[in-house]
Design goal:
By secondary structure, this protein is α/β, with parallel strands linked by helices. The protein folds into two domains: about 220 residues, Rossmann fold (3-Layer(aba) Sandwich); about 60 residues, Alpha-Beta Plaits (2-Layer Sandwich). It is built from eleven helices and 13 strands. The protein has a six-stranded mixed beta sheet with strand order 5-6-7-3-8-9. A hairpin with a 2-residue loop joins strand 1 and strand 2.
Length: about 300
């Protein structure tokens, strides 16, 4: 079995009385897209910066590609790409110049010009970095992180400020990196992004990982899937609950609109419509709503990601 690409054990990081990491354990497996999610102040940024070698662990251990990100930084740098949330390029440099410079530092880089075109930066090729829009700076930061063909890339908010087309192009590039065997560690405030791109999600809160798994596995835990249906107002919801069994809960949220929560499967949907038929009630619409990753995140942390 291969060792994890990122292996964090018992990480403790304190800033005065604030504990940013409290014995945090986290692993990232090779060839995956792994999202690290957490509300503000949860400790995810400190953890990522420690993995990137910008901070030294106060307690515990961090290994990246089997190496210490601080003491082995010289050996790690050619193998790891880092996209910062902001900055990373000289104020007056133009995107092609910056990207060609980064490419020149690597043995087998991607084609900088092709990457510029791929990420829609050709129109701003003559614009200094300081005059680029926030979205353009984000795209250049992404290009700088991947141009050296890294084995591992850390992406911090890669689509912040991007328009829908550029956001989709970024998603496609992340998927291609994974398909090429690159390991991607992603932080994002967009739950749909984490759900769409990630093989594994780690939820961090109060300096610890409080849940881990695939998006599908996390949303299945403690599922709050529901059946919503519309029919005549004033139905006997107590009788409907008796018919469905004690696990199901039924509520008329507004006149004629009903929500059934429970173990949602084909049998439950059939039982709802069968009960209505026995009452001589015409069901006007039925909708099964699946719990999202954002729903599960709120359940776990009690806070929104934003």
């Amino acid at each position: 079995m291969q060792a994890p690409v990122v292996d964090v054990r018992g990480l403790v990081m304190r800033y005065g009385s604030t504990v940013a990491a409290d014995g945090l354990d986290l692993t990232v497996e090779r060839g995956t897209v792994t999202a690290i999610l957490g509300p503000n102040g949860a400790g995810k940024t400190t953890t990522i910066e420690t993995c990137e070698g910008y901070r030294s662990p106060q307690e515990g251990s961090v290994r990246v590609l089997g190496l210490d990100p601080v003491s082995d930084a010289r050996e790690l740098r050619p193998r790891v790409g880092v996209m910062l949330q902001s900055g990373g390029a000289w104020s007056g440099v133009r995107p092609p110049e910056m990207l060609r410079h980064i490419a020149s530092l690597h043995a087998h880089p991607l084609d900088p010009d092709a990457l510029i075109e791929r990420l829609g930066l050709e129109r701003s090729a003559r614009t200094p970095f300081r005059r680029l829009s926030g979205g353009q700076q984000q795209r250049l930061g992404l290009a700088m992180a991947v141009v050296g063909r890294p084995e591992l890339v850390f992406l911090d908010e890669p689509t912040a400020g991007l328009d829908p087309q550029a956001r989709r192009a970024t998603w496609d590039l992340v998927a291609e990196l994974r398909d090429a065997g690159v390991t991607v560690v992603l932080t994002t405030h967009y739950m749909d992004e984490a759900e769409a791109l990630s093989d594994v999600v780690h939820v961090v809160d109060a300096g610890r990982v409080i849940a881990s798994g695939s998006p599908a596995a996390l949303t299945a835990e403690g599922a709050r899937n529901t059946v919503r249906f519309t029919a005549a107002p004033g139905l006997d919801v107590a009788d409907l609950m008796d018919a469905l069994g004690h696990e199901a809960k039924v509520e008329e949220t507004e006149p004629g609109s009903y929500v059934v929560a429970g173990d949602v499967d084909p049998a439950l949907v059939a039982a709802v419509t069968a009960w209505c038929a026995r009452q001589g009630v015409l069901v006007q619409s039925v909708l099964v709503e699946r719990q999202t990753l954002e729903d599960r995140f709120l359940d776990l942390t009690g806070r929104s990601l934003r």
